[in-house]
Specification:
CATH superfamily of the largest domain: P-loop containing nucleotide triphosphate hydrolases
CATH topology of the largest domain: Rossmann fold
Largest sheet: 7 strands, mixed
Bound molecules: guanosine-5'-triphosphate, magnesium ion
Shape: globular
Number of strands: 7
Structural class: alpha/beta
Mean pLDDT: 84
Number of domains: 2
CATH architecture of the largest domain: 3-Layer(aba) Sandwich
Number of helices: 11
Strand content: 15-25%
């Protein structure tokens, strides 16, 4: 990703991941609402092969672990449980920054099959950041017990991403989840998450800001999603953009005039 050393926050965490003794072929983020079984999925996939790591600058501890599948060494990062990625808390900010700026090879969202509607909010937000999203529909045993039926194929079709039903506590569906991760990262499978379309005036504003963001980051991060956050007046994203830009290697530096604009005006939102 072209980031230099001497980092803080997410970058220090990423450097720590990269320096681990086992070289990862792919880094996978595990996100989800609180109490949906993320750690149970994480433990089921990685077994005892895991450690915890601090997120420097925040009192957030993340678990990271590895597993081998089809000769690929996969590193899994268990993110804090969040209801959204709007950075209203340290947990939300850590999850958002890892998914948006950490450039994971795929993000698995673990959702509670017994209350899918509430969980889909986060799924849609992650889908807006990355097409490499997989929905792990956990607690499917509980849903069955409550006589909740979910049409997996229809859900996959509506969302445009793989949907894997699991009962992680008894390891049901984890083999399929490993395969879905493998196909998303290394296979020919291409996800096509259904795009969120906003009202016309918002779309016009997004387009204007997005062009500037694209110029700065040259395709490294999702410029549409960043444009949306800037429109939202999210100041934490501006700081993270600065951090990211400062850590891009000199050869990767964007056009200096545009870079200066972010440094000076601090907010794209005020320029729309
Ligand atoms: N019945 C059933 N219980 C499960 C399943 N997966 C996890 N659980 C249980 O759900 C509870 C919460 O699981 P965790 O893995 O700690 O959930 P989490 O998402 O990591 O929770 P936070 O980190 O606190 O957000 C535990 O009691 C698990 O044993 C499942 O598929 N079926
Ligand atoms: Mg947990």
């Amino acid at each position: 990703m072209g980031l230099t050393a001497k980092s803080t926050g997410i970058y220090a965490f990423l450097e720590d991941l990269n320096q681990s003794s086992v070289k990862a072929d792919a880094i996978i983020a595990l996100a989800g609402n609180p109490n949906t079984g993320k750690s149970t999925v994480f433990n089921g996939l990685t077994g005892l092969n895991q450690h915890t790591g601090n997120w420097p600058g925040k009192t957030v501890v993340l678990a990271k672990g590895n597993y081998l599948y089809r000769h690929k060494n996969i590193t899994l990062v268990d993110l804090p449980g969040t209801y959204s990625l709007l950075a209203n808390s340290a947990d939300e900010q850590v999850a958002r920054d890892f998914i948006c700026f950490g450039d994971p090879d795929a993000t698995v969202v673990v959702a509670d099959a017994t209350c899918l509607e509430r969980n889909l909010n986060l799924v849609l937000q992650v889908m807006e950041i990355t097409p490499k999203t997989i929905l792990c529909l956990n607690l499917i045993d509980e849903a069955k017990r409550k006589k909740i039926e979910i049409d997996i194929a229809a859900l996959e079709n509506i969302l445009g991403i793989p949907v894997i039903p699991t009962a992680a506590r008894d390891k049901t569906g984890l083999k399929e989840l490993r395969e879905a991760i493998h196909q998303t990262v290394f296979g020919k499978r291409c996800n096509h998450p259904k795009p969120m379309v906003y009202s016309e005036n918002i779309e016009v504003a997004i387009e204007k800001i997005q062009a500037e963001v694209e110029n700065l980051f040259q395709g490294r991060i999702n410029s549409r999603w960043v444009a949306l956050r800037l429109l939202d007046g999210d100041t934490t994203i501006i700081q993270e953009m600065r951090n990211y830009l400062q850590r891009m290697e000199p050869k990767d530096q964007p056009v200096s005039e545009t870079y200066k604009e972010v440094e000076c005006c601090g907010s794209f939102g005020s320029r729309v």
